[in-house]
Amino acid sequence: MTFTTDVDQIVPRYDDTGLGAVLPGAAKVLGIDTGHPAVPLPAAQRVCVVIVDGLGRRLLEEEAKCAPFLSSLLPDGRTLTAGCPSTTATSMGSSAPGCLPAGTGWSATR
Predict the structure, then answer these.
(1) pTM of the prediction?
(2) 106 to each of 1, 29, 76, how far by Cα in Å?
């Protein structure tokens, strides 16, 4: 069975390009290897991670005037994928330990 859609499909990645690799990447910069995929980050002595829930690259591109500083970072930035399901609970639950959503048991808020 084949499904077609007019919407570009984004397949979750669970490597160093996934949302779950952000905190392991921050830890690695500080000298802590978690053993999980880690977003490559530049050397730093301190790290501050800010996650804006629901603000994906497409929305930021479409509404760049509403967030001029964040949109100015797009040319040098990279796009990360959320896991599946792409709920806040699943994404945040996976990002802290840096493991797959199934490994946390969190799939929804209820």
Answers:
(1) 0.75
(2) 30, 27, 32
